[in-house]
Amino acid sequence: MTLPTTETLNLNLDGPVLHITLNRPESRNAMSLTMVNELMAVFESVKDDTSIRALVLRGAGGHFCAGGDIKDMAGARQKAAAGDSDAYVSLNRRFGEMITAANQQPQVIITVLEGAVLGGGFGLACISDVAIAHADATFGLPETGLGVIPAQIAPFVVERIGLTQARRLALTGIRFQGNDALRLGIVHEVASDESELQTALENTLKAVRRCAPNANRVTKALVLKVGQEPMDTLLDQAAVDFANAVNGEEGQEGTMAFVQKRPASWNQ
């Protein structure tokens, strides 16, 4: 597996964990089209690599992501003025393709949220399997206050926290911090300082390592299908997947490790 070359992301492979750092600190890691394309390339390059079990997304310079890049909007405006009627559609939809890919990524997605977690950054938080936030992180959907809409983000916010709360956040643009994000169900854990944040991340990664890699992949695919397929169809396939897991290498190793009171082979 070869990771793509990136300009806006720092990539660090640490055993079974790929750390992806959004690296445009001068703009609070605003998400440019280049960053969107690079994230998609990274997701694609590792999705079939079973040796990589978790992807950790965080931002450089004390911020996660302040939303979309205004320069890209200006570029789309120029294209539209030159006759490209789909310029805005293409730009916006590309972000939606990226966040959909992130949502469906078979590895565990962990977001470490500091500083600005706005717009597109908020969207990434809402598709993560585990979200850990600094208490002082600032969350919000500022789009409507700018005269635009959270077009590709709103559906994922609804899935994350429900329609009632999503309506309030999207239609008021209010900003709030880590503990409110925890109460709303956007994040799973809040840390009071950098040391606590790092400890929470390390504990999460230890927990992921205790889970069998393929079992995690199949389980994530299962839970993402809830509400998308008839329940009986979903449960029929889940039973087949369960039988395959029990009879597979992971199931046999997990059972043997339990009986022998030792860590499973994947717990490293």
From TrEMBL:
The family database entries (SUPFAM superfamilies) matched by this protein are listed as: ClpP/crotonase (SSF52096)
Gene3D superfamilies given in the database record: 2-enoyl-CoA Hydratase, Chain A, domain 1, Lyase 2-enoyl-coa Hydratase, Chain A, domain 2
Top-rank lineage group of the source organism: Bacteria
Which GO molecular function, any one, fits this protein according to its record?
catalytic activity
Example of a GO biological process term: isoprenoid catabolic process
- InterPro entries attached here? ClpP/crotonase-like_dom_sf (IPR029045), Enoyl-CoA_hydra/iso (IPR001753), Enoyl-CoA_hydra_C (IPR014748), Enoyl-CoA_Hydratase/Isomerase (IPR051683)
Family statement: Belongs to the enoyl-CoA hydratase/isomerase family.
Question: Any idea what this protein is called?
Answer: Enoyl-CoA hydratase
Upper lineage = Bacteria, Pseudomonadati, Pseudomonadota, Gammaproteobacteria, Oceanospirillales
